């Protein structure tokens, strides 16, 4: 799936990519992070900011030591915070997605808050079995513009439709 995501024009245009560090059951992002580094792109990952108690994006340096955060995901040991306005593309995890760009996360709204501060393209990575007819949505839930699975790429139109 990393190759499919990397082939997108949105990826090609991005100088700084925000990406999650995958848990074992999630679509693995290490291949995509490696492609970013090979192309000279900056990579940022979510990290808990102890001063605010909220997640922000921190630059992932090549020699970065990682620690396991409160939500079981890895994050930089000494975060170098990145202004969300510097990010060109966001790679988003999810438990489930739907063809209208709906995303079901792990609860708590942490990723929704990160997405709300970002206006660029958002790509959800999912296994085809994670695609549902409709995921439940609440007012604070953010959507993705593109979903990449092992079988297809869905580009979601502003009206909620999609094209493959």
Q: Determine the number of helices (DSSP H or I, runs of at least 4 residues).
A: 4
Strand content: 25-35%
**Share of helix, binned:** 10-25%
Distance between the termini: 15 Å
Mean pLDDT: 91
* Neighbour order of strands in the largest sheet: 3-2-1-6-9-11-12-13
Number of domains: 1
As a whole number of angstroms, the C-alpha radius of gyration is 15 Å
H/E element sequence: HHEHEEEEEEEHEEEEE
CATH architecture: 3-Layer(aba) Sandwich
Please provide the count of β strands: 13
The CATH superfamily bears the name NagB/RpiA/CoA transferase-like
Give a short summary of the structure.
The chain has 164 residues and is of the alpha/beta class.
Structure description:
By secondary structure, this protein is α/β, with parallel strands linked by helices. Helix content is 15%, strand content 29%. The protein has a single domain, classed as 3-Layer(aba) Sandwich (Rossmann fold). The protein has helices at 2-6, 9-12, 30-38, 110-116, and strands spanning 16-18, 42-49, 54-59, 66-68, 74-76, 89-92, 96-98, 103-104, 122-125, 131-132, 146-148, 153-156, 162-163. The protein has an eight-stranded mixed sheet with strand order 3-2-1-6-9-11-12-13. Strands 8-7-10 form a three-stranded mixed sheet, with no helix packed on it. β11 and β12 (153-156) form a beta hairpin. The model has no long low-confidence stretch (mean pLDDT 91).
